[in-house]
Amino acid sequence: MAMKSHFTFTKEQRNGIFLLILLIVFFQCAYFFIDFASNDIKINKEELAKFQNEIDSLKQIEIDARKPKIFPFNPNYITDYKGACLGMSNEEIDRLLEFRKQGQWINSTKQFQQVTKVSDSLLNTISPYFKFPEWVNNSSLKSKTVFHLNSKLKTFTQKQDLNKATAFQLQRVNGIGKVLSERIINYRSKFAGGFIADVQLQDVYGLTPEVIQRLTNEFTVKTPRPIKKLNLNKATVEELVTIQYIDYEIAHNIIEQRVLREGYKSLTDLTKVKDFPVNKLEIIQLYLFLE
């Protein structure tokens, strides 16, 4: 018995297959050669422009939000890091730090530019954030300051011991009342033996440089509390963190910089250490020496 072929089609089936092939060819050609894009699409340019402006505004708001915010500050206390953030060059920052090391203070925007030599454009950008002590803009206080600065300076022998002065004695200095005198005594009492040096008066809240100058013309540390100074080129992290204002992070940075420099040549080299509290250098130096 002959096997019936599965590929044998009837006439109707062959016609159907042929028609299907024709349809496939037709649609393939239509897909490749006929442009179905509509030319009737209309764009509302005015609405599109509004939408684009809104997007641009949102982008600008985000950019402004990411910019570091600048808060009012006293330019006398600009550190390396702060100066770099403000756009100052290393030379400009160094001029300011050198000026401050001499015990001098910047009291105006004009003087800031004279000392640092920053450009007019940078000065115009950062000077609105300068915040000087109230006495700078107070003419009556200025005249008092000039008067006292011009008064006769006392010798070391003529001055009284700051570590033994009473609150009542301190109040005899112009600018020091009951509150400030008590703060000085309380700060002195925090340390067994009192002050190491006059410079620590900078840590007493509320004492301006002018008041400190008048105070140290009447009083000075004659009996400093004994301390063990550390050799900056040999001190360990554990030893460094015993110093005021130096935490473990700063101590590690000091030692890292010491290795890179193959030893410190001057205590002022500490101003180049990352995150070092430059405005407290004079106090920190009290606990250090170099060999």
UniProtKB/TrEMBL annotation:
InterPro entries: Endo/Exo/Phosphatase_dom_1, RuvA_2-like. Keywords: Coiled coil, DNA-binding. It holds the Pfam family HHH_3. Transmembrane segments: none annotated. Gene3D superfamilies: Photosystem II 12 kDa extrinsic protein. Residues 34-61 form a coiled coil. GO terms for molecular function: DNA binding. The keyword DNA-binding applies. This is DNA uptake protein ComE-like DNA-binding protein. It comes from Seonamhaeicola aphaedonensis.
